[in-house]
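Internal tracking record. Fields below are filled automatically when a chain is submitted to the structure queue. Please do not edit lines marked as system-generated. If the sequence contains nonstandard residues, flag them in the REMARKS field before resubmitting.
Queue: standard
Priority: normal
Entity type: single polypeptide chain
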Amino acid sequence: MDFVGTVWALLPPVIAIVLALITKEVYMSLFIGVVTGALLYTNFSPVGTIEAIFEVMMEKLGDSWNVGILIFLVFLGIIVALMTRAGGSAAYGKWAGNKIKTRSGALLSTFALGVVIFVDDYFNCLTVGNVMRPVTDKQKISRAKLAYIIDATAAPICIIAPISSWAAAVTGYTNGDGFSLFLQTIPFNLYAWLTILMVIFIGVTGLDYGPMKKFEENAAKGDLFSGKNDYENVKENIISAKGKVIDLVLPVIFLIASCIICMIYTGGFFEGESFINAFANCDASMGLVMGSFITLVFVFLLYLPRRVITFSEFAECIPQGFKMMVSAILILVLAWTLGGFCSTKLEAGAFVSSMLSGNMTATSLFPAILFLVGSGLAFATGTSWGTFGILIPIVTAMFPETDPMLVVCIAASLAGSVCGDHMSPISDTTIMASAGAQCHHVDHVSTQLPYALTVGGCCVIAYLVAGFTKNVFLTMAAGVILLFAVLSFIRYRQAHKCDMMK
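SYSTEM-GENERATED OUTPUT FOLLOWS
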């Protein structure tokens, strides 16, 4: 029986999704999806199945683009480990504490630092938390509120940053010019943009609702933890007493600048191409590798001559940084392999395209559906990367590169993946945000959930608009107007309730 180009071609990703929802184990779910794809492709030949699995896996790992992405992730992990060891965050936190005098200023400064550190969500969570805890504590902002701001500027910022580990991962899941496709998804990534607007709105107006309101009221009275301090006996671990503000700021700025310069270099900018054309046509994989390697050399030259860290400490950070990225690398390899079977070997796209031809109403609902599916899957599994690693190969198989729905549906998949990850109590980013803020984890999850649901609900409506119009301005306008209407209504109800109690 020939399974290629039939409904059976959809079985591997469906199995991966269902297993991930049931078991909450994304690695095994992806692997079983891969095995299923190999079984169908080889007509259940035992020897052929094993051969096909590693043939496709080695083909993906042999791709120069994919290898570059993996190398970039390793270099980034090493850089993060080095900056953590140097202790510059402590120096920055002390400096910021003397400059910021208001609650609003502390919240918006925390948000701004999270935006600046957009290269990786792990680096974001740990750095922003360590830097801003003394500042927000001084302004009597609850640790739950700090954890929310950290979490809201981790994955939502990384997913719309062209120079980040997330951008590298997304481009690896797509076919053809993945980086250009990723750039096109940025304006349609509603969850990220609306989350940013919500954090600014909360920072400016001081609005709190749900469980967060009680935590903030307790913090104003001096109880930053609302009685649940898991870190009462934890001492601050400053690795290097010689760390200064520049030991945090300079490496981040240099990493961003060097990656951008190297990317436009690969796009021909220094050979006469315009900046826009060079950026759009660059080899992002090679550019990120070159930029991260140059940054690693820069960090070596910045830290060692000043004896911020020793040569042996620098060497210790190399395996530590690699270990930090093992999980991401494993997800990438399995997702690449599953995508190879789904799109190339079993030709799922041919079947789906034939089924959807002429049914424009059903197609128009896809962005909202993909957002909801991605949110549910990421919430259950606790991983954004694993979720969009499953969904993107399905979307790319369904729509040709010239179809505008490809961009909208990939953006909806990415937004849903981040939304579910943002709400999930088992998400590594959520856990690290709690750790960065030194907040009781359940408190962080319970206080953040109403905020994430508010933004997610607005995204569903806006993606319905996107599906029917494919117009980014109408889509964004629908999301922004709806979000501000909801937040303004909540604020009005709270003010009216206060007036009634007087």
